[in-house]
Amino acid sequence: MTGQATPATGWKFADIIAIAAIGEKWEQVRRYFFLRESTYDMTNRCNIRCDGCYFFNGEKQFAPENLNETAWQGLMEAEKARGITFAVLAGAEPSLVPHLCRICADTIPLGAIATNGLKAIPQDIDYRIHISVWGNDSTSKAIRKADDMLVRQMANYRNDPRAVFVYTFTPHNIEEAGEVTRMLAEDGQQITFNMFSAPVGYNGPLRHTPQSLAATRAMMTELLADYPQTVLFSPYNIVAHTHELGLHALFSCSYPRVNPSTAIGLGRSFRQYRTDLQWDRDAACCVPDTDCADCRHYAAGSAVVTARMYRHAIDPDTFSAWLDYVDTYLAVWVRGYEKGPNLCHRLVVPPPDGQ
Amino acid sequence: MTNDIDQTIHRIAEIIINELKLEDVTPETFDADLDLVDEVGIDSMDLATIALVIRDEFGVRIDEDDYPKLTTIRIIGEYIAEKRNSVE
User: Fold this and answer.
1) Which of A155, A332, B27, B35 could form a disulfide with B39 if both were Cys (CB 3.0 to 4.6 A apart)?
2) Assembly ipTM
3) 3-state SS of chain B: helix, strand, coil percent to 5?
């Protein structure tokens, strides 16, 4: 019976947010509901070449570069005019085109840049900066062919409040996360976690298995407990990103690539621009060319889990877990947003639609 | 029946005004046929919030797949009436 009033738990939404700690965090995060994101590939060049790189998969890598500043200015103004309030600058390596990044930041003041961190992005570009880490320096040398990556990344972004390191778990670097997190903690940095998600057609050794997901869950849990000031994550992030089901199966992804509706939300507003400043609705999601069934990307979860607020408002624990997730997402993506303590410390089961 | 729907529409207008802190509009002046996305600027998170308040007040669950259809206050009012009738 689809018209069921209150959820089976018997909790009304008003009663859930009447709990002081929940109500406080609810009011804090809902102030950011105005965020509307789109993503932009800035250049098709990179200063390193990593095994499994998302950019150098699929068609988008072959789009010609448009380095014309007037064209970028026009694009950003048009994006702002259609309601985009958050710009994500990615692919292949935005730090190689700081003048274009600056145009974006000057036009749309909130945003984030995904970078390998080997070339410092000028301070006046006041976006959150996500620095990718794929293991310790020995592993980085093997799969990214670059020496001393973490040391160089930390040096470039020491005492820089824009920076957050993004550690991508593969089945082969799980134990190294402890060493990397410790080094970042000692350097006063922050870290959040990502999961390797296989590109379409990829069946290589980086694809997660049930065993590697379980081991990753255990490591994330340990690091969140041991480094609460360094690790931007929550128990519900751990659940959502290490579940045997991917994000699409758990939460029904709302990016245009799998969502035909253009009426509201991401299906209406999200675009993923290639370096030629064109976009394709059929390929539009935060990391195109990912196998949707295997998608556990941190960027995808930030939008997809957040969008499913309604189904989480069934009891205080489940809604607290959702709030922790959104609190984490905002802290990772929005400059100046301070994450509070997590409210829910148990591993909540993701609720299906229809509660 | 018409009166019931009018009351529902009035209450939905109050909820939207309150939740979105809209100014320069009252439940009486809120055009029930205004497109909430195109003309009011509501997005999915706003609608989810409104849907939760509606669930509390009217005892009606709004399916996630139905969000795109709920483009005006009148349509939301009719949706609520239909759902309530289906359980009576």
Assistant:
1) B35
2) 0.88
3) 70, 0, 30
